[in-house]
Structure formats: structure tokens, C-alpha cells
Amino acid sequence: MMKGLLLLCLLLLCGVRGQRSSECPHLCSCHGGQVDCSGRSLTSSSLPTRFPTSTTELRLHDNLLTTIPNGLLDALASLRSVSLHGNPWTCDCGVLYLRAWLRGRPAGQTSHLNLSCSSPPGLRGRLVAYLTEEEILESCHYWYCDLAFASQVCLFVFVAVQVALLVAVIVFLRRFERLSRVARRTKEESFAVGEGMMGNEYEALKDSSI
């Protein structure tokens, strides 16, 4: 009984997953293995996070895509063609996945045609598939780079303040030690003078009594 229920649950779960994997993404139209998401003003943030695993043709051209999330196309084993032209691609570190994916496609496919950079200015008009890693990395600039630099500056300032405080403490201790030495010497001299004066007075009293 329990085994039967467990088997039924597994079958239902697999069926739901299979149904979800074959669902047509929102804002796209599907026909057979063709998924058409072209001309929908899709951005990189509104792009569907998954496509049916049976997709053979994917149309993403004429949108507002600047990059494609890493691994988005890796699960589409049956994919034979994809159109990506007509998008304002930003050729910084975020395009490395797309570049690698394009370079891994069979030689007969033309996915890289008309797939050119819109920014940065130094790479505008260049085909994404033919960019070198050095060119892409030179254009990379993220907020966490600025944060890392700011953290380094703060760390340097913190260390400098700590060093300054340490130097101030050492100087204060040396001055305190010097003052203590002077005070001790002055006290000893005062005792010596006091004892001398008391001795002289005793001698004077002794002489007068005689």
C-alpha cells in the first residue's frame, strides 16, 4: 500500500516536472519545437529563466537584451538554431558566457551573424563571437570593484590610525617615564637636603647646649 502510494507520488511529480519543462514561456509563442520570443521588448531581467527542453529553434532577436544569464541555453540539447540579432549587447564581463556558447556551436550554424556589441564605445560594432577575452576583461567595471577599492582605502586608513595611536602611546609612556625619573630624583634630593638641614640644626643645638 505504502509502496504504491510512493510510486504514484513519484509518477505525479515526474509528470508535473515534465509538464513544466514543456510549458511555453510567458510572452513567447510556441509551435512544436519552435519558441518565438522575438520583438517582445524583452530585457535581460524579463527574459524567461527557462525554455522547453524540446526546443529546436529559439528566436530572441529584436528585443532589448544586453546579456544572457549564465547557463540559460546549456539545457537545450535539441537546439539547432537561435536568433539573437537586433539586441543592444553590452560586451563586458557579462557577455563571456554568450561568447563561449557561440564559439561552441557547430561550424554550420550562423548564430553569431549580426550579433554585434552596442557598448562599450571601444567595442561597438564588433562581433561578439570574435572578441578576445582580453578585450572583454578590459571593459569590465562593476560596483564591487569600486567597493573593493574603497575597502582597501578604509583598511589603509584604519592601519594608519592604529600606527599613529601606537606611536602616541609610546611617546606618552616615554615622557611619563622621564617625568617619573625627574620626580624621583627631585624627591631624593629633597630628602637629602632635609636630612642635611636637620643634621645642621642638631649640631647647632648640641653646640649651644655645651
Structure description:
- The chain has helices at residues 2-22, 96-103, 133-138, 143-209; strands at residues 29-31, 34-36, 57-59, 81-83, 89-90, 117-119.
- It is an alpha/beta fold and 210 residues long.
- Strands 1-2-3-4 form a 4-stranded mixed β-sheet, with no helix packed on it. It has a two-stranded parallel sheet with strand order 5-6.
- Helix 2 (96-103) links the parallel strand 5 (89-90) and strand 6.
- It has 4 helices and 6 strands, in the order αβββββαβαα.
Annotate the secondary structure layout:
Layout: H1 2-22, E1 29-31, E2 34-36, E3 57-59, E4 81-83, E5 89-90, H2 96-103, E6 117-119, H3 133-138, H4 143-209
Keywords:
210 residues, 2 domains, 4-stranded mixed sheet, Leucine-rich repeat, LRR (right-handed beta-alpha superhelix), rod-shaped, alpha/beta
CATH class category name of the largest domain: Alpha Beta
Could you name the CATH topology of the largest domain? Leucine-rich repeat, LRR (right-handed beta-alpha superhelix)
Number of domains: 2
- Summed up, the helix count is 4
Task: Give a quick account of the main beta sheet: strands, pairing sense, barrel closure.
Answer: 4 strands, mixed
Termini distance? 130 Å
> How are strands sequenced across the largest beta sheet?
1-2-3-4
What is the helix/strand order?
HEEEEEHEHH
Give the fraction of residues assigned to helices: 40-55%
Instruction: Determine Rg (CA atoms, Å).
Output: 41 Å
Derived from helix and strand composition plus strand pairing, the structural class reads alpha/beta
Count of β-strands: 6
- Runs in which pLDDT lies below 50 for 5 or more consecutive residues are 14-21
CATH architecture of the largest domain: Alpha-Beta Horseshoe
Mean pLDDT: 80
The CATH homologous superfamily of the largest domain is termed Ribonuclease Inhibitor
